[in-house]
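Good morning C.,

I know you're traveling, so I'll keep this short. The sequence:
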Amino acid sequence: MTVQETTEAKRPWLKTNKKFMLVRYGHLRHLGLFEHNLAQVPKVRTHVVVKTDRGLELGLMVGHWAGYKAGRFRFEPDQMAEYYKAAGMECGCDCVGRFVRFATATDLSEYAKLGRLAIEEAQTCQQMADELGLQMKIVDAEHILGGERIIVYFSADGRVDFRELVRRLSAEFRTRIEMKQIGARDQARLLGDVESCGQECCCRRFLRYLKPVNMRMAKIQKATLDPAKISGYCGRLRCCLRYEDSTYLELKARLPKKNTLVLTNKGRGRVVDGQILAQLVLVELEDGHREAFPVEDVRILQAGEPDRAMTDEADVPEDDQQQ
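The tokens, ready to paste straight into the viewer:
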């Protein structure tokens, strides 16, 4: 089999000679591949109009600075899937639509106009929901650029029967209405602005997949356990606690556990505590004195192992000591 045949076997999509661009679109920052037939793509921040299963939408081309060669997105779907899998995330890397055109000034103006209109639509939807006695909070509304539909995002404690609400909204706006229930993190993605770190909320700025965050991550990083200080805009634990979790777990695994018997250059002792980032082990020696040692200067004692101090003399062979 030739090199070309091998390459085509590994990359069957090259036989179709299709070109794709990666686009971020929608209020929830969806990410997907869109087919196009351009010879080149701009290497600057560019808005595009794409066709999805929801209709015509305005999106932003991703990876424009180094992600394309001769108009083709450098990373293939299988490479993207492998990347997300290695990161423990799920991602649909199939083509989700097609490129229609680069956004014009008219498109951008129309999108801004629809954005203002969506605010009024969300208010109307909340008013109708209250009239029907529905226990739901309208978070946001998204008016698709092509006018095919209005997507209403709402939060609620449980399931809500909104069929009558949809009928009234359809009659009011004379277009298709899609209701989408979201959680606290997606609500922060839609409404969040600046966090306490001074940066825009991660879920709004770049995070596409919101993986679970738990209290263990806060504890291992020695963060304060005050909920007010470790909670984000959504009221849940901050997503940034996850960023360094794997590093903390790796460093923690190098330290001996508490109450482990160890041998140091100052004798035998028991592990009292450890400092993960500094990689120090706090040892209580047999005389009751406590001292911190680098983890590489501490050796764990096995059951029944003779008590021998870690000195230079201990490393000298017996024959040399007898001489």
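Safe travels,
E.
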